[in-house]
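Notes from the 1:1 (GR / supervisor)

We went over the backlog. Supervisor wanted to see one worked example end to end before approving the batch request, so GR pasted a single chain during the call. The sequence is below; no edits were made to it. Supervisor asked that the structure be written out right there so they could see what the output format looks like.
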Amino acid sequence: MTKWIGSGKGLLLGLVATGLLGPVFADGTETNAPVAKKSMRDMMRDPEDGKLDMSEWLSTAHGFFPVPIIITEPATGYGGGLMLLFLHDSLQNRAELMQKQELKRLPPPGVSGVFGMATENGTWAAGGFHKGYWRDDTIRYTGALAYLAPNYDYYGTPDFPLPVDSIPVSIEGGLLFQQLVFRLGDSDFFAGSGYSYFNADAQLDTDVSLPPLLAEGRSFSSASLPFILEYDTRDSQFTPNRGLNSYFQWSYFDEWLGGDTRFDLVWAKNRYWHPLAENFVLGLRLDGEFSNGDVPFYMKPFVNMRGMPAMRRQGEQVITTEAELRWDFTPRWSTVGFGGAGWTSDDGLGGFGQAYPAGGLGFRYLFSKLYQL
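Structure output shown during the call:
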């Protein structure tokens, strides 16, 4: 239930804590940096301005290190957790392979990890994952196995309003996720597919009479075959200053794949960044999420936007727009203002009505100039 652009704050704080505490590497040593005599303190400082900067440490890191998780989602309440990550290679090593012309591009290192998290309202999750980049970043793999147990309030949809304001919902289930995409030639396009399976048991804390589609599907298995197309020209995956990222996915759910019913979910997500002046960057977002068939209530599209609780506004179709303006008022510090709106519909593309706005203001510190983190 992450929000657009600002979703990396847990990872950011975790990397800071990791650098200050010192990583534990697979070979048992404190670091495998090429310059053995360099202290951790020196590796955490920018030689140009002397400020806290993790570029050198991130370039040479290889092995296990912990990453704290910070959760501020309004739908589940405050919480936290921990990821234990393993970097399969260092960015410095990959840069050296590029210089030797053994790699054409500089992909991030493959990473595996396990995680656990919980929030104040009883929500929790645990699992493991792997992200791999193979054959000179022409093949990208993502796999995960997790158990999810979210608690939140369900508010209904335009065509299926509730007789009460909201209903407390508890969901538990196992998730299997597999995705494999291929670079198309030497372009910035990727295409691929995968498989996902989720076996959920939903508990609704209410005695009131519910609409048919809500009363059904309390114990439900869903299995899908996704078809993916992505275009990505961002200059950084952490804090882009320019570029376009467009992602399209059609997920085909059916009984022969292992699920209980037949339905479709479609995501069309677009992000664009453009520098307006030397210290100002404009970010724009336009997303569309669409569903068709017997979709369980907890899988219906919802307005996913910073400042709005997850799952609060759901519908068969959802459109979300958002803009942010980042001002880098010092070489290290930035302020970000953002705002947008979402619309829901249960009556096709012509049924979008009331807009649901949200916005806010935040601050950022540049912990790595090299990777724009």
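Supervisor's comment: The two ends are 21 Å apart (CA to CA).
Batch request approved.
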